[in-house]
Amino acid sequence: MIFHRASASMHRRNGFTLVELLVVIAIIGVLIALLLPAVQQAREAARRMQCTNNLKQLGLAFHNYHSTLGCFPFGWNISADLNIQGWSLQLLPYLEQAALNDKYDPRAPAFNEAAAAGFNAAAVTGNLEVIQTPLNAFMCPSAAAEVLSDYNVPEDALETGLPPVELTWTAARGDYSATAGIRGAYASLAYGANPPPSRSGVLWETVPGGRTSCPRVADVVDGTSNTFMVGERLGGPSVYKLRKIDATLTTTYGGTQGGGWGDALHGDHWPQGSLYDGSLGTNGGACIINCSNGRGVGFFSFHPGGANFLMCDGSVRFIPSTIEGFTFAALMTAAGGEVPGDF
């Protein structure tokens, strides 16, 4: 009997009281809270690495294009009959996308009104299907999940000088935008009273009566390691103010964002900057990275602290959002003659 009681007592001591169980749960909760940020940081580091690799792949494609044709592609070009093309389409053969490239007919543009404008209807249909094809090379894993975007933009929004025509299309997501040049509003902040002789980037545009030569390495007078070619501008067609979508701005400007890899708007980005809360302001602003993703406003990523940029030499640099205005503007121009210093 005595032995039996001792065994029962020992058996009871092997269990957990409610207090002990709550303490264990609390400890596990604290450990999860401590580990979760580390897990999220590791995941973001992996996404950022993939984003960097995408840009390196694009850089290799740009240079293979240059080796083959003697120059880089135009940021975008348009003919008098509204045949409009962007830089990304021209890189398809150099991104192991021969099948898509063969399907795309450069004699016709990719917008819904093209057939009515006199272009071959079958070619237009095929081209629209091409730009609706998601391609991993143009998508940063850190971006939002939008895949297909609808655009409805007046043609004169591209400042072509041609009569305004409403153009519409649907495009697969593209998170990397051409660095076309610095808009005057940001240049005034960056340079003060001493603007450079040229505010153009390396991927310039061509319009009827405009440039006829495509950009070459020799045209990057400021040095290929000191000049941007492509930068992250995520989130289109939504318009972001910091990390939140602004419904009003999206309704007003979403159709002109240029967030598809195969649309011409993807090659027309002359940022003017924004205010630090992401507001557009009346005349630009000092914030150029991660405040607003608006086309003609700023570059934008979901990486903390900055955004990735492809340089003209094929390297990729992570540019902090705190970069000084003159330095950023100097890196944007291809022949401004500036010395950007450390960045």
UniProtKB/TrEMBL annotation:
Domain DUF1559: 40-324
TM stretches of this protein: 21-39
Record has Transmembrane helix as a keyword: yes
InterPro entries attached to this UniProt entry: DUF1559, N_methyl_site, Pilin-like, Pre_pil_HX9DG_C
Pfam families: N_methyl, SBP_bac_10
Superkingdom field: Bacteria
SUPFAM superfamilies per the UniProt record, alphabetical: Pili subunits
Gene3D superfamilies: Glycoprotein, Type 4 Pilin
Name of protein: Fimbrial protein MS11-C3/MS11-G2-like protein
Species of provenance: Blastopirellula marina DSM 3645
